[in-house]
Design goal:
The chain is an alpha/beta fold. The chain is 31% helix and 22% strand.
Length: 432
Amino acid sequence: MKLRVAHVSPVFFCGLLLAGPASGWEKYGIHSIYPVAISVQIKPSALSDDDLKRVKRAGFEYLRFGIRPPIAAIAKKNPDYSTLLTRIHNAQLKPIVTLFGGVDVWGGEKMESRMARTPQESADKFAAFALDTLRQYADPDILWELWNEPDDPTFLKPELLQSGLLPSIQAICASLKGNGQQGQQGQQKGIARKNIFGFGFSKMPNLTPDSIGSQLLAASLENCLDGVSVHPYRNIPETVINDAEQTRSLMQQYGRADLPMIASEWGYSSFTAARDQDAQAELILREYLSTVFAGIPLLSIYEWKDSGTDPTAIEHNYGLVGNDDRPKPALLALSYLLKKLEHTQLAASKKDGTAYQLTLTSEPGVKERRNVYMLWASSSRAGRPFSIQRNGAKRCIISQFHPQQSDRPCPGNAENVEVNAGSVPVAVTLYF
């Protein structure tokens, strides 16, 4: 069965009805020339000037990294954050900054940093660190993220939620809300309004009342956060569409389904036990397109460069470039996709079984009007037939993204363009 633009009933309209193009989120600091803003995770200590140039050239708009408190156990590893932010600004990129709690708050075992503090003392220390950092950096282009994966025991022991993290978040929110009410007095204290997201959930928040996600959102969503951040790692990228709907349902319980939900960390490793670099490239393409479909306005891919050299180690092989700085197929494919989607916005999204279709149109004011149809299937390598109506287009181009990046004219002059698309997405662009 072919997925036709005019005849298949739309199942989801997440990007169209709930979020709109990324430009619709500008009041929350999310600016983009793409239908979904694009970021990549970097390691500050290993970021060269050449890396910054290559990241920008590849089409990325944001860089995500963490700022850690000056705890004795890690202070010597902390870079000069002011210099780092200046370098990022000079490269015409924007930061996504995650405020990490440090091992004494998230439950590490290094006694030199714990110093027998009570949970409340640790909570106070993190709140002070977060507020001091927010005061220090006034750049309106920074997107701030509180914490990192509080629902993962690696980063927060469950018993420290009520006694540690929740009091911290409540103190931060009270300070930010208070400054919002004090106006000029608050500005004199140096806490300007920020674009703040929480909390980098490793599992998308669910509807269970006593879940970590529910408790954190209840403490912060109504008067503190500008949005929710999630890390939606998964084997099948398209499943994020339904999960995004569930998370919005939870946000709606607090009357804030209008707030953005960003994917601040998500990637695929090319380690040999699971997939090769070609499979990584396919998944990265589908990851971005699924994010568009789900109405998520920003995606930060994990990560820019492989962190090790063992081909069998999952954590060593998430990079879009290898440890030797050579671009992987995923970077080449994603960069080509981004180029095709510059200055477009989501107009419609359709699903039929395992087949997916996005219709993107030119942003207002763009000189050359075009429609871009992104076509793919989540479970078929052989290819799924699609039929696109030309609608009087002056020119028609079919674009391939992997294993090669190429454009070719649509064949013939028939009213419909017939294409096959499987797990590797393809694009049909109509110029008017």
